[in-house]
# Entry
Amino acid sequence: MRIARFSTPEGEPRYGVVEGEAGSEVLAEIEGDPLYRPIQFTGDRHPLAEVRLLAPVIPRSKIVGVGRNYADHAAEMGAQPPAEPILFIKPNTAVIGPNDGISYPPASAEVHYEGELAVVIGRICRDVPLDRTGEVIFGYTCGNDVTARDLQRRDGQWARAKGFDTFAPLGPWIETEFDPTDQGLTTSLNGTPRQHGRTKDLIFSVPHLINYISQAFTLLPGDVIFTGTPAGVGSMRPGDEVSVSIDGIGTLTNRVISRG
Ligand code: MG
# Structure
């Protein structure tokens, strides 16, 4: 099931189940927030083309990022594959939705895209055993771990470089029936593919990450895990359009804008 968050010109954000084929999707509106109540349809239906999609979730407390979780990306950064997951936090104020602008901060001259599989947590949890991680996953979406590479190098730690407003695009919706074992991921810049990866090449798999992360942080419903990016990261400039596509989920597209 694909669950989207959306707004219409006359209303507050709502949720809907995405039905139909690409190009003719319809949102079947549901009552309330599906993280907190069973799916119940209102009966209202909206063609996708007539709504604005929003970030499918606003993390209640945090996005947990994972650094260098594909060997080919670690190599392009001049690093060895890590022996343990490298964790960092992106603030929930960085989240934007499909087609929202990635705001290029004046402090940076080197803003990179990082297409990633994003895991949405469905229930409060800590110390999740490896064989029970499936119970705490609500679904999956596409994420872009936008990074000011120059500031990442200069600062030494990653909070600012990965935490600017608009540096966590999410969408287009959450797929609740998705097997993360071996799916293709492609990031394109202005229509040209730049990153190709398969989730089977994650150094630390989704269950391993949830087990490891939940030993450090209590995870809340709506928290998100960015699982890492494959090789091919690169710079974006204002005016560029960046898309992250994952097989079985969909495509998240954003344009880079100058910060006014
Ligand atoms: Mg990343």
Summary: The mean pLDDT is 96. Residues 2-54 form a domain with the SH3 type barrels. fold (CATH 2.30.30.370). The chain is about 10% helix and 40% strand.
